[in-house]
Write a structure and sequence with these properties.
By secondary structure, the protein is an alpha/beta fold. It is built from ten helices and twelve strands. It is about 45% helix and about 15% strand. The relative contact order is 0.14.
Length: about 300
């Protein structure tokens, strides 16, 4: 059954963040009444704070985007914290949505939850087929457990909860901190800074022989809102482009767009992460009409331009 968001009270956890800011903009364009809780006011890892949030905001729809995230390095350093914070936030938000009797809950998962070894492209039914890749397994396991929680709450409590699994996101407003960022913003910053200081070499992690799929943040936001409006199923659904790119080719694309003329040095002592990652995105198109629209090169150019203007 379609959910008309116009006039609905929608709580977006993480709504002030990278992805959240674009989701909020789309909700407002649909006429939704949006409330964005801030971490300084509501610590979502604490059950009393989440209960206070629901009592104050009185949501009809909840979109749970808040997460502790980072690249391979950040996951290795903060593996326990990533597990605890993501698990705790999701646990309390899902339970609070059930207790409040919200009309709809949208949970955002991660493609890091897929098994390290599985067929490509990843199909939603493959999610449960093995352990995630070691470098981000605690984060991936926590998010996968929350998908199971939403399904269990649907069965026992009739909570209308859905789960979406996006590919790696990138775009304007991303995190460009080299200690915690993902691969695209890290590479953009490295190439820009090397070009400006006249550097001759940029170091990239791993071998460059692994693959990833990248989803432009504005496309992801549209997919999330479309699912909130049109999808009520129990199965998780992938959000992505369905297009796989080698990290080595990604590096060359970013180097070309930035205009860096030097060399790339591959640090093979650093982990590559999952060997391949690409999603089967046919479900999202069939179930709620989502198809990514932004080509990678255009999205990269937009992201580079934003970084140059706002760093």
């Amino acid at each position: 059954m379609a959910t008309n968001l116009a006039g609905r009270r929608v709580v977006v956890t993480g709504g002030a963040g990278f992805l959240g800011s674009f989701v909020v903009a789309r909700l407002l364009s649909r006429g939704a009444d949006v409330f964005v809780p801030r971490s300084r006011d509501y610590d979502l890892t604490q059950a009393p704070a989440v209960e206070r949030l629901f009592n104050h905001a009185r949501p009809e729809v909840v979109i749970h985007l808040a997460a502790r995230v980072g690249g391979i390095g950040a996951n290795q350093v903060n593996s326990g914290g990533f597990f605890y914070e993501n698990m705790a936030m999701g646990l309390h938000v899902v339970h609070g949505a059930m207790r409040r009797g919200v009309e709809k809950l949208v949970l955002i998962g991660t493609s890091c939850s897929y098994p390290k070894v599985t067929s490509v492209p990843f199909r939603e039914e493959d999610l449960w087929g093995g352990f995630p890749e070691d470098t981000n397994a605690p984060y991936g396991v926590a998010k996968r457990a929350l998908v199971a929680m939403v399904q269990a709450y649907r069965l026992q409590y009739r909570l209308n909860g859905i789960a979406l699994i996006p590919a790696n996101l990138y775009g304007p407003r991303d995190n460009f901190d080299l200690e915690t960022s993902h691969v695209i913003p890290a590479l953009i910053r490295k190439f820009v800074e090397a070009r400006e200081r006249g550097g001759r070499v940029v170091t990239a992690w791993g071998t460059g022989q692994v693959s990833r799929e990248f989803l432009y943040v504005e496309d992801a936001a549209e997919g999330i809102v479309l699912a909130a409006e049109r999808y009520d199923g129990s199965d998780p659904v992938n959000l992505g482009t369905g297009r796989e790119v080698l990290i080595r080719d990604l590096v060359e694309e970013i180097r070309s767009l930035v205009g860096f003329k030097g060399d790339v040095e591959w640090d093979s002592t650093r982990p590559d992460g999952q060997p391949r990652r690409c999603l089967d995105t046919s479900g999202a198109e069939a179930l709620f009409g989502f198809r990514a629209r932004t080509p990678l090169r255009k999205g990269l150019r937009n992201t580079i331009n934003w970084y140059l203007e706002h760093r």
